[in-house]
Structures are given as C-alpha cells and as structure tokens.
Amino acid sequence: MKAIAARRHHRHAPMVLLLLALLMTGGLYAAFAPSAVSAAAPSEDDIAAGRALFIANCATCHGPSAEGRDDVPSLIGVGAASVDFQVGTGRMPMQMDGPQAAAKPPQFDQEQINQLAAYVASLGPGPAVPSAQQVDPALGDAANGGALFRTNCAMCHGAIGAGGALTEGKWAPSLADSTPTQVYTAMVTGPQSMPVFNDANLTPDEKRDIIAFLEEQHRGSPGGITLGSLGPVGEGVWVWIVGMGLLIGASVWIGAKSS
Amino acid sequence: MSQTTAQRAAAGTADYLDQRTGISKAVKGFARKIFPDHWSFLLGEIALYSFVILIISGIFLTMFFVPSMGLIVYEGPFAPMNGLEMSEAFASTLALSFEVTGGLLMRQIHHWAALLFIAAIVTHMMRVFFTGAFRKPREVNWVVGFVLLILGMAAGFTGYSLPDDVLSGNGLRITDGVVKSIPVAGSYMSYMIFGGEFPGEHIIPRLFTLHILVIPGLILALIGLHLFLVVLHKHTHFPGPGRTQRNVVGFPLFPVYVAKAGGFFFIVFGVLALMAATMTINPVWNYGPYDPSPIGAGAQPDWYIIFLEGALRLMPGNTEYVIGGFTLSLNVLIPAVIIPGILFTLLAVYPFIEAYATGDKKEHHLLDRPRNAPVRTATGVAILTAFFVLLLAGANDIIATHFSMSLNDITYIFRASLLIGPFIAFWITKRICLGLQRKDRELVLHGHETGRIMRLPHGEYIEVHKPLDEFERWTLVQHEPNRPIEPAPQHDERGVRRKGYRRDAIRARVSRFFYEDRVEPVTPQELSRAQAHHHGPEGLVGTGDGTVASVDHGTTDAYRSVQAGDAGTGQGPVPSPAGERER
C-alpha cells in the first residue's frame, strides 16, 4: 500500500484511475445490462443451415461474412430479432432497390427464418426474438399503450397506425397487418428509418401495452366504415363524392322537367 | 257542394289567422313566386338544408357536451381510454359517442353536415360566379354570400376544435402559431385568444360560445338577409326563348316548388343520415385526449381549411428573419395570412372589378353562359386552380403514401404549380371559351352537320347542313357582347388637357384586359348574309324531306373574330315561353 500511496501524485495516476473507472462501469453494465440471449439456444446444425441459406440468398449484398459494404449494413450484432422482422415480413431479401425496402410475401418459411436468425445471432450479440408471453396482447394495458403510441409512434405511423409519409419517398407502413412479434422486433431493432426503442426507452411491459393498443384497432370503428383511417382528408374526399355526388344527382332529378 | 270537416277546419283556421295578421297577402305573394327550373339553382338549398340539420343535430349535442378544460380521469365503456387523464370536453365527447343513445349518430350527422354545408356553399358560389349572377343588382348579395362562406368556415373550425382531442389540439397549435406570426401584435393577440400561454384553460369555453351562439346567430341573420334579397331581386334564369331581363320563367312556389324544395330537404337529410350511419367521421377515440407533446401523421384540418395547411406545407421554412431582436416569421405569415388574403379578397371584390371593367350600369337578370364571359370564367378557374393546388398540397403526405411518390418531389411540383398553374389555367380556359363561342357562331351560320354527303350534277361532293330552329338559335345569339371601354380623348375641344384622363386610361386598360379578345354573337345581318349565300342558285339543295338545307362551301368566315363596330346582337324572333312569367 505504501508503494501505491507514494506514487499517488505520479503524472500517470489520473490516467490509471480513469481506466479503472471505465473498466468498472463497463463491467457493471455487462453484469446488469438486459441479456440478449434467446430462450432456446439454437443448435450448431441450425447455425450451419442458416449459414448455407445466408450464402445462397443474402451474401450477394451483405458479403460472405455478413460484414456489409458501401450502402449495405453489416449484420454482425443486429441480432435474431432483426432477421425475424426483415425476412419474416418479406422486406429481405430486398425485391428491388428503392428509397426503402418494401414488404412482400415472405420468401422463407418460419424454420428457415429461424435458421438464418440463428446464424446472424451467432455472429455477435444482438436483440433476440421475444417470447410469446412478451408479445401477448391480452397481458398488455391498451389505454397506457395508446398514450405511449401517441407520444412515440403516431408522428410517423398515424394516430392508430394507418401509416404515413416520410421524406424522399420513404414511408412509415401501416401496422394493421403486423403481428405482435413483428411490432416488438421492429421496436427493438429499428428497421430502416425507424428509431430503436430499446428496453431503457420503452420497457418490455410498455412494448406489450403498445401491442395491446394496436390489437384493439382490429375491432373496427364504432362509427362505421373507417375510410382508411386517413383523417380529415379522406372524409373530405368522401363528402364530395358521396354527399355532393348524390345530392347533385337529386338536384338534376328535381330540376328536370316532367315532360 | 258540401265541404268535408277537414276542409272546414282548415278554412276556419286560415280565416282566423288572416283576420288577425293579414297573412293571406304574404302567403298569396309567396305562393305565386316563380322559381325557374334548373338543377344548379338547387345547390344553395343544399347549403340551407345542411345548416338546418346542423342546428337540429347541434342542439342535441349541446345537451351532453361539457365545454370545460377541467381535468378528470376517464372511467367508462371505452376500455382503451380507461384511467387516462383528459379534459371534461373530451370525456363528454366520448360519453356522447359511447353512452348517449343515438349520440354517435348525431355527432356524425353534425360533422358530415358541416363538411357538406361548406361543400354546397362552394358549389353554389361557383354556379353564381360562372353564370355572372353576381352582376347588378346582386353585388351586395354576393358579398353576403361570401361572408356566409367565411362564417361557415369559422363555424366549422371552432366546432372541429371543441372535442379537445390530439388532432384538433394540433389545429389550435397551428392557429396559435399563425396568430403569433402577425408582426408586433401577434403575441399579444395569442395571449388574448388563449387567455395566457397556449393551450391555457380558456380556449374550449370560448370556442364553445363562438360555435353555438355568435357564429350560428350571425349565419342565421345573414341567411335571412341572403334569402330576402333573393326574393327582392327575384331569381335569375338562364337565357332561352321567351326569357328576358324583365321576366322569370319557371314554376310557382306553390304547389310545385313547395313540393320539390320541401322534398329536397328530406333527401339532404336522408343522404346525411346514410353517411353518418355508415361512415366514420372524426373518430376522436382514435386521436386521444389532447396533450401538447404528441402529433399524429395525417394531421390535417377539415377539407375547407386544408388549403391553409397546404400553403404552410409549401412555404420554404428558411424565410424567418430576426430584425433587431424581433422575429419576422414570413414562413408562416405569407402562407397563412397573405396568400389566403389575396385569394379571398379577389373573390369578394370580383363583382366590383368586373362592373368597373364593363362600365355597365344595367340590371342583369339573365344569366351568362360561362363561355360568353371568357375572362370571368378563366379568372374563376384560375382561383379554383390555386385553391385546388393548395388543397392537394395539404394532403401531400396522403398523396405520397397512396401513389408511392417522394414527399419532397410533390412539394416542389406543387410549389411550381401554385406559381404558374393559375396562369396556365386562365389561358387554357379563356381559349376554350373563345373556341366554344366560335363553335356557336359556326352552328348559327351553317347549321348542324347531318353526315349526309350529296353529289351535285357537275360532280362536286357536299355535306348537307341542317339549319337551327329558331329556339336553338335564340339561345346562341341572345347575349349582348361586352366591348372594351374607350377612354375619352386626352385633350378637350380647346386642346386643354382633360382632368381625369389618367383614371379613364387605367379603366380602359382593365376593360381591354377583359374584353379585347372576344367573339361576338351572330348579328341578323350576318345571318341573312349567310343564308343568302347558302341559298344561292348553285347552293340550293333539297334534302328530300321537303325542307331546304343549307350547304356549306367553306367555313372560314364562321371562325372570324368580330371586332367592335358590327351591329348589335341577333334579334331573331322571340318564341313564346313555356311556364309562367314574373317581374
């Protein structure tokens, strides 16, 4: 101890202390940070099958080791959740180049998607696919989910997730047909223009509340046909087409001579 | 002849009322009022009936709506809102939608009727504008109608803001921004309107008072004035045989138009009830209680305010300047105050501009066919084009998602369209009007093409043209052409410069803009000349059915634009009218 005390005014002491502090912070974070390990650890066979699929379908753009290149992101560390979302909604493999990858019918079945996800997850730690319980709308609070949705999501996806426009031809898609798992994985991975809503930002319970709120929307509108839930623009179009259309028709009928 | 009990009772009641009020004179006068037949004369009635429906459904809504910004925690049948903090205004709107029997239907009828009210006003106004029904003596009634349009928009906007949902709160926030963009007075005005910093606790009760008392009261009074002036001036009618500036040809109010117009009310009510029963409008339960932090994509006002939203969306945002510590927000002031100011002022004063250009002090009870007033029609189309571009710009995000276009590109396209679109629309419309007028001249002078080709003895092929009957011809030649005013000479007979010459010269220039390019109706001289030409010895052809058709040798003279100096309008025989006359 005496030796350390003697050197406490050494000019490298602050540096050493700083390194120690950083080491401790990092160590604590590693110990307490949310674990990204998925429930059922994938087998080596899955990873191998996933790698084969990857080489055949994805490596053209993302590179043979998923390291990415110029405008193609690296997949090291994106996690299984990202694969489950991008491949599960058909966004990947990308149909064509454009402002943003469009959803299409998925190209792989769920087993193949799981294998791909296992391979990508094996490249580096990342968000895992949520468990069924984590995305069960019945366990969520739709009222709280609605409030969270309005604050965090509605500015792009619209008041109830009907979708909206972004800049330069990009768009926030409609959430009407998204599964609870897709909503969850989108939040944790932040695909394309979407920001990441990690567990410190929205806790897993809050994510489930949002899922519950979105599930509520499947009940339809108490007021009748939703008109696409587009808001006043849609209503304005229909008042001219249906309202003025029918009434001008009636005017022509009334104004016509009986002879 | 014996009377039934019912007839005796009706006669007795009528006599009782007449002896005490002298009402029979008024009833007789009104019952004999003539209303001309044309579908476009019923557009104003759609607006009137929508307003009646607005009042009826609005009274119902006031029974349950609580105009308060006091905060409560919602506990009610709509589960996705349970436990949320919200204003009493929003909670009572939810209660109206989900607890009050028939409440949601009434809310939806009220809102659809509001959209229809303005749509009908705008359509009615287009009819009045394009047919020139605003000319003397109806200029004042045009202004009354214009004020009704503005009041209708104000009624709509105040009502839209009442439920205190996120969407309408966003609208109020924009209003706040627009008010604050007014130099110097803006921030004081905003504090006055909101009773402090936005959103405050006063705006909903204030809007409520405006929405249910002040604005509808004004609208009601002005509708009374509007209809009184219609009765006073008598209705206009479209030109046709037997229709003159001194009569109205149509059917009496009683019984024909009482039945037609009375029935039309129920048709309007039926259409609104159908829409309200089947189509969701303003689902406030989707938007949630107002909170200044969130905003939803697709946040737009109702359709009649979208042009303001569009102007704001089109304006480049970098036009805000700080001068000596004061912020001048041209990025808000120009689109939200100046552009609509120009469009609406032009609309309001147009009758006076046109009267200035024509120098015409005569009364006009015969409507114009839009083609016969090319500059007016073109001006109207130009204003509508600007309005429509702004409307589309307000919906740019919906266009982007539904047509897979880039929002940025749409904005650039609309910016350019707003600046040049009205001028292109003006030019095209004017050309189309002039072309249609030339087509009319051609028809009058040469008749309809029959498609029958004949071969003359010397081998020439000709097409047989069938002359117009006098009813059809009358409609095409009856109008009086407007010609540019020539200013009086600059110097009087003694060579002294005349006072007021400059003013006359400006007026002449405006008048030239309106009437320099024109196609005048066929004169009787031209008609007889054309007929003599066609019926000349080598042109006379029997059509086989006993009538004599004219033969067209060349149509170049029909396309000639006539300049000033030709004789007046065609004074063909006036065929007798159908229906009854008044005036």
Automatic annotation (TrEMBL), chain A:
One GO molecular-function annotation for this sequence? lyase activity
Chain ranges passing through the membrane:
237-256
Is Signal among the key words of this record?
Answer: yes
Name the major location.
Answer: membrane
Give the signal sequence positions.
1-30
Instruction: Please describe the post-translational modifications of this protein.
Output: Binds 2 heme c groups covalently per subunit.
Q: What PANTHER family does this protein map onto?
A: CBB3-TYPE CYTOCHROME C OXIDASE SUBUNIT FIXP (PTHR33751), CYTOCHROME BC1 COMPLEX CYTOCHROME C SUBUNIT (PTHR33751:SF13)
The protein's name is Cytochrome bc1 complex cytochrome c subunit
Q: Which organism is it from?
A: Cellulomonas bogoriensis 69B4 = DSM 16987
Top-level taxonomy: Bacteria, Bacillati, Actinomycetota, Actinomycetes, Micrococcales
Automatic annotation (TrEMBL), chain B:
GO terms for biological process, alphabetical: respiratory electron transport chain
- So which cofactors does this thing need? heme
Alphabetical UniProt keywords: Cell membrane, Electron transport, Heme, Iron, Membrane, Metal-binding, Respiratory chain, Translocase, Transmembrane, Transmembrane helix, Transport
Reaction(s) catalysed by this chain, per the record, are: a quinol + 2 Fe(III)-[cytochrome c](out) = a quinone + 2 Fe(II)-[cytochrome c](out) + 2 H(+)(out)
Write down the top EC class of this protein.
translocase
Q: EC number(s) in its UniProt entry? A: 7.1.1.8
A GO-annotated cellular component:
plasma membrane
InterPro entries linked: Cyt_b/b6_C, Cyt_b/b6_N, Cytb/b6-like_sf, Di-haem_cyt_TM
SUPFAM superfamilies attached to this UniProt entry: Transmembrane di-heme cytochromes
**PROSITE patterns linked to this entry:** CYTB_CTER, CYTB_NTER
What's the protein's topology in the membrane? Multi-pass membrane protein
**Domain spans labelled Cytochrome b/b6 N-terminal region profile:** 13-239
Q: Where in the cell is it found?
A: Cell membrane
Protein known as: Cytochrome bc1 complex cytochrome b subunit
Q: Which organism is it from?
A: Cellulomonas bogoriensis 69B4 = DSM 16987
